[in-house]
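Below is how a single chain appears once it has passed through the pipeline. First comes the sequence as given, then the structure the pipeline wrote out for it. We keep one example in the README because the format questions we get most often are answered faster by looking than by reading.
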Amino acid sequence: MNLDHEVERWVVAHRIGWLDWLFVGLSRIGSSGLVWIAIGLVFALHRRRPETAVLVTGAAFAGILESSLLKAIIGRARPHDDPLVALPHTHSFPSGHAASSFAAATVLARLEPRFRVWFFLLAAAIAASRVYLGVHWPSDVLAGALLGTATALLLLAGVRRARPRAPRTG
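Resulting structure:
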């Protein structure tokens, strides 16, 4: 058994029963990036900057799309010993929850830096919930987090590049 399997088995074997509801809830709010879209909408409305909602939604969906494509190509089987929730029918690598969460958290952290720690803590909790629930290997979550972060950084760089620059006055 490799380290990835050993860590997943250890986490699942050491679940804390009274915290199960929390990890199930984190996984649910992370599905389809919905919590991130909601957070993006709140900041967009509060700051009157609709582009916040558009960027967060785009980042979350890009993370989901990219992870889905990679899952289809790589085809890694999910853990199947004692999952706490229904085992998804898709492949395991990389985690879509982690990819969409870290993509959205990275965009939000750039746009709302005062809250960046909270955004990344939520993203990490959602990602970790997938291992706790027994539906992902730790490397799936790590790869998803890296994929989501890279996706968001590329998206933000593209947006910066596409913005018209103010003419220089000399």
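The chain has one domain: 21-160.

See the next section for the split statistics.
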